[in-house]
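Q: I'm building a small set of examples for a reading group on sequence design. Run inverse folding on the following structure and report the sequence directly after it, with nothing in between.
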């Protein structure tokens, strides 16, 4: 071959390789009008392959049919509600349903169709009390809160995953700066040694501090006349345990003088009926700060109609329900008589790098079977994880693990003979969260994970249709 041709060819190839290596080291820039995309050898081919495989997996997951046949006993109870019966749903979930999201709209829709008045079970305190709109809820700070997310052998949570204990103190987290010790004898030779690096600032030490108060712990609930709420309270019940023969609660309704009620002693879950002779719009409960009774919540409802209890625990995966003692679940079931259990979990185990959710399958099988044992003959509906987006370049796409997670959840439902609703499919499938965030008005938050109130209402409307499906 002609040397005059080979030498320039080699020079061109070497130049391309050198420029390619340099280009690899230049970071991308997407700020302002000038945009520079990072160069990656064959990166575009890999990206196309990843997109195609992810898209196929998501589409496959979106095509998993919802399986609703196990809801037949619930549908029968709904028919009875039309004739003056009572139907109650325990809706368990994580932060996706906090603040009565989804459940408020579902409750409103069902009560419009089948009757009922009241928001159901409400905890003693809540980190989202100010966000929730279906009931006004305020409380003193001096309640100790223990949840199934914390390991504490002193108290076991109730059905809602929490137990609240009156105290004469409350706990605050404080961050204490730690002092950096330096060696004052150390001498640095600026000519022979590089400039010394500044000592790294240590992380503050977090401590819990008790602040004692001389006020009694109290909780107050006020009715709210909006969809999903109620304009007054008619049937009011307090759930508690571990009271002594001297335990009492002071109750004030509509700002009137308090009346004192004696509590039943014992470790089992007890129910105190505080229903007024005529409807009220506000109730305030005051407890003894030195009486460490275990409080679980207050229920607002009527003897007839449909009720949806929002039972949310932030950050919870849905596994390890056995942290709630079986006897407590059975006690709540005797008092509230649930006709359906809804489980909406998954986002707290979702991780873009996860390709195998067999651990979640195993954990949730235990959860479902534990609930079936504690509340036999109550049908269970598993709601799949919804679409969640992760950033890819300048865009947001479905997290690649979501289809694997949804497929696993469908298998959990099938293996436990539970009903299954594919929320990923109901949202629109592939990249639907991006569409929900960018819609006008928006239906989800810019974290591309949580629904806002408008989006939650839309899910509630879709779920209403699912629960109303005829046989």
């Amino acid at each position: 071959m002609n040397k005059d041709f080979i030498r320039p060819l080699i020079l061109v190839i070497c130049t391309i390789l050198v420029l390619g290596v340099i280009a690899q080291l230049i970071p991308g820039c997407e700020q302002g009008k000038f945009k520079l995309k990072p160069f990656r050898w064959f990166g575009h081919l890999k990206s196309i392959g990843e997109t195609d495989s992810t898209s196929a997996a998501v589409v496959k997951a979106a095509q998993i049919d919802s399986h609703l046949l196990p809801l037949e006993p619930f549908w029968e109870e709904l028919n009875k509600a039309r004739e003056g019966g009572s139907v109650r749903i325990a809706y368990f979930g994580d932060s996706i349903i906090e603040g009565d999201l989804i459940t408020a709209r579902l409750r409103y829709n069902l009560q419009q169709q089948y009757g009922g008045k009241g928001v159901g079970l409400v905890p003693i305190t809540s980190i989202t009390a100010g966000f929730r709109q279906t009931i006004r809820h305020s409380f003193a700070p001096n309640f100790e809160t223990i949840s199934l997310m914390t390991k504490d052998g002193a108290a076991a949570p109730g059905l809602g995953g929490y137990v609240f204990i009156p105290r004469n103190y409350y706990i605050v987290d404080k961050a204490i700066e730690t002092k950096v010790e330096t060696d004052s004898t150390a001498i640095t030779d600026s000519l022979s040694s590089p400039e010394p690096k500044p000592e790294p600032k240590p992380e503050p030490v977090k401590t819990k501090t008790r602040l004692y108060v001389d006020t009694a712990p109290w909780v107050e609930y006020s009715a709210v006349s909006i969809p999903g709420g109620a304009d007054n309270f008619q049937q009011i019940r307090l759930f508690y345990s571990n009271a002594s023969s001297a335990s009492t609660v002071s109750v004030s309704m509509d700002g009137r003088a308090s009346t004192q009620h004696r509590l039943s002693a014992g470790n089992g879950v007890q129910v105190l009926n505080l229903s007024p002779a005529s409807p009220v719009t506000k109730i305030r409960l005051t407890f003894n700060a030195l009486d460490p009774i275990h409080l679980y919540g207050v229920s607002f409802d009527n003897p007839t109609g449909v009720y949806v209890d929002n039972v949310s625990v932030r950050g919870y995966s849905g596994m390890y329900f056995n942290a709630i003692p079986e006897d407590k679940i059975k006690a709540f079931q005797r008092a509230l008589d649930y006709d359906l259990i809804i489980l909406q979990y998954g986002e707290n185990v979702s991780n873009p790098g996860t390709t195998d959710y067999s651990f979640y399958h195993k954990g949730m099988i235990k959860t479902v079977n534990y609930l079936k044992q504690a509340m036999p003959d109550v049908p269970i509906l598993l709601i799949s994880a919804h679409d969640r987006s992760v950033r890819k370049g300048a865009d947001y796409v479905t997290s690649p693990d979501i289809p694997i997670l949804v497929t696993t959840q469908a298998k959990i439902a099938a293996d436990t003979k539970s009903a299954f609703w594919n929320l990923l499919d109901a949202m629109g499938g592939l990249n639907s969260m991006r569409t929900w965030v960018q819609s006008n008005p928006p239906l989800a938050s810019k974290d591309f994970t949580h629904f806002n109130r408008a989006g939650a209402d839309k899910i509630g409307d879709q779920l209403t249709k699912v629960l109303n499906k005829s046989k």
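The chain has a mean pLDDT of 87.
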